[in-house]
Design brief:
Length: 228
């Protein structure tokens, strides 16, 4: 078991370094993204986002400590393209984690971002980066996304593959109160099966690579009387 965990950790570590190389090659020519990315990466050099999340899970006495994951930015680019996210959007990221995805959305796409995250250290480090880099179009909220107001969102991004069904049901109910036309992007599951009333139309579904393999991404649009 220990050997399996070590092999998994090594694979994860190698994947991460390769992924950083890919991200640097692809987005390294965009100073608006590169500088905040480097600054935030530095703050996780000795204390990875995975370790931060594990500490938090231990502190709240969660059953599973290994729930953290990040969207590879090259996959986020595919997702943003397919869901037509543009500079005029306001993306709410539910569970922003360390915040690299929010930095990418703002620095590469140029849209407004509200990053909602429950782990205070993630929020604090992202907030410090934003302040240092004088980025005014990312708002960080240290809050529970099931309780947080989503007013102003034109796009929602949710990567929470490990959420249990009762939480997804609660969240789907919260998202069903969004105004018509808002696009909701989810990884691993669509929202409509968790709702009794039709609230979302599924407009696209495709697979993108994540650290642990391929994940299905669902793009749904908030619409009244929707039938998926
Ligand atoms: C799988 S990570 C995704 C990180 C990032 N969105 C990405 O795609 O790279 C999920 C994040 O959601 C956060 N989270 C889970 N439940 C939450 C809640 N109810 N409110 C706010 N954040 C939450 C976790 O702390 C974790 O950082």
């Amino acid at each position: 078991m220990n050997r399996e965990l070590s092999a998994l950790a090594l694979r994860q570590w190698l994947y991460q370094w390769r992924q950083w190389g890919r991200e640097l090659r692809r987005y390294g020519n965009r100073p608006r993204f590169l500088l905040p990315w480097l600054w935030l990466k530095l703050s996780y050099l000795l204390d990875s986002p995975y370790a931060v999340c594990r500490r938090y899970q231990r502190r709240i006495k969660a059953e599973n400590l290994y729930v953290y994951g990040e969207t590879p930015l090259t996959s986020l680019e595919l997702i943003a393209e397919k869901s037509a996210v543009t500079a005029s959007d306001h993306v709410f990221e539910l569970g922003a984690g360390s915040g690299f995805t929010s930095l990418w959305l703002q620095g590469v796409i140029g849209c407004r971002v509200t990053a909602i995250e429950q782990i205070p250290l993630f929020c604090w480090r992202l907030h410090r980066t934003i302040r240092r880099m004088k980025m005014s179009t990312i708002d960080v909220r240290c809050a529970d996304y099931c309780q947080s107001s989503l007013v102003g969102a034109s796009v929602i991004y949710l990567y929470g593959s490990n959420l249990d069904d009762s939480l997804i049901t609660l969240l789907a109910g919260h998202l069903a109160t969004l105004p018509l036309g808002v696009r909701v992007i989810t990884v691993s599951y669509p929202l409509q099966p968790y709702l009794e009333q039709p609230a979302f139309v599924l407009t696209d579904q495709f697979a993108v690579p994540f650290a642990w393999g391929e994940a299905e991404v669902f793009i749904q649009v908030r619409s009244d009387g929707a039938i998926t």
